[in-house]
Amino acid sequence: MRELTQPQLLALFALASDLQSGRCRAVRALEDVVVLTAFFEPSTRTRLSFESAAHRLGAAVLSVPDGRVSSVRKGESLADTGVMLNSYADIVVLRHPSDTALDEIRNTRLTVPLINGGNGCEEHPTQAMADWYALLKRCAHLHDADAPPEQRISLGVVGTPRRMRALRSFLLMGALHFPHILRDVTVVSEDPRPLDAELDNAFRDALLPVRCTSDLRRHVGSFDVVYQNSLTLVGTEYEVFDAAFRIDGDTPLKPHALVMHPLARLGELGADLDDTPHNLYFSQADGAVFIRQALLLAVAGRLDRVRWHEPEELG
């Protein structure tokens, strides 16, 4: 998250919006590029959205969809895997259950660009990009850096960020790059220590008020945006945390509150919200492919191959 800047993020969001709306195309921008999705941890949405993004840009795609069928299962080190990946791909998207996987593979002779598809409980940067893209697209007034405090977001997150990389990354991106959009943050969790030191410090540096509570019903009516999650990785297995904090049609949300979720969901998010104005989680999923297209174009240095339509072509 700290390798990105706010101008870079906003530029990627703008390009993703143009791709999503059809204002520009980049069908063959990566036609001579090989993208490898190396997923040593199960994934559906992240892996498929990266592969969809690559295919839409004309790239060739190789995939390790399950680490259990790779040489890592035989005992090969991540360092040796990194050396091997150099020979096979031009861009690598890596997901791994270890918090330190990116550091380990970067300390090898890996020279091709590496995109983090999620590492342990640490970070999921492209999920956070898709989340903030969806939120800023829905709430255009938030782009004004001089907006008065009463127009900023009171954010509630339901879950345990230090154990949930999607929540953690969403909060870290907000504190580092979009603090002017947030008025305050409330973390609803059964864990008495839901934040880690990096998040604590990021909120402190951003001068953002943060409170932690286990009483969802007491505070949910004050949130402009609620980010819900319950699944977390423990070792190599997923477990459900904070499952008691269900949000559904009976939850006393603000009339115009937005509900976010990285998906997949279990029982913590009711399907009766799907067809209501509260639903932002489908927009998060819809925009993820376009965010990842924009990122692949930028990482490959192929932004000059994007073709914008003339106004008359758009009709």
Q: Using the coordinates above, name the CATH class of the largest domain.
A: Alpha Beta
How far is it from the N-terminal to the C-terminal residue, by CA? 39 Å
Number of individual domains? 2
Q: Which architecture of the largest domain per CATH?
A: 3-Layer(aba) Sandwich
Furnish the topology, listing elements before pairings:
Layout: H1 6-21, E1 24-25, E2 34-39, H2 45-56, E3 60-64, H3 78-88, E4 91-96, H4 101-106, E5 114-119, H5 125-138, E6 153-158, H6 165-177, E7 182-188, H7 197-205, E8 210-213, H8 216-219, E9 225-228, E10 231-234, E11 237-240, E12 258-260, H9 281-300, E13 307-308, H10 311-314
Parallel strand pairs: 2-3, 2-4, 4-5, 6-7, 6-9, 7-8, 9-12
Antiparallel strand pairs: 1-13, 10-11
Helix pairs in contact: 1-9, 2-9, 5-6, 5-9, 6-7
Question: Can you give a write-up of this model?
Answer:
The chain is α/β, with parallel strands linked by helices and 315 residues long. It has helices at residues 6-21, 45-56, 78-88, 101-106, 125-138, 165-177, 197-205, 216-219, 281-300, 311-314; strands spanning 24-25, 34-39, 60-64, 91-96, 114-119, 153-158, 182-188, 210-213, 225-228, 231-234, 237-240, 258-260, 307-308. The protein folds into two domains: 6-123 and 288-314, Rossmann fold, CATH 3.40.50.1370; 125-284, Rossmann fold (3-Layer(aba) Sandwich), CATH 3.40.50. The protein is built from ten helices and 13 strands. The chain has a five-stranded parallel sheet with strand order 8-7-6-9-12, with helices on one face. It has a four-stranded parallel sheet with strand order 3-2-4-5. The longest helix has 20 residues, at 281-300. The radius of gyration is 20 Å and the shape is globular. The two termini are 39 Å apart. The model has no long low-confidence stretch (mean pLDDT 89).
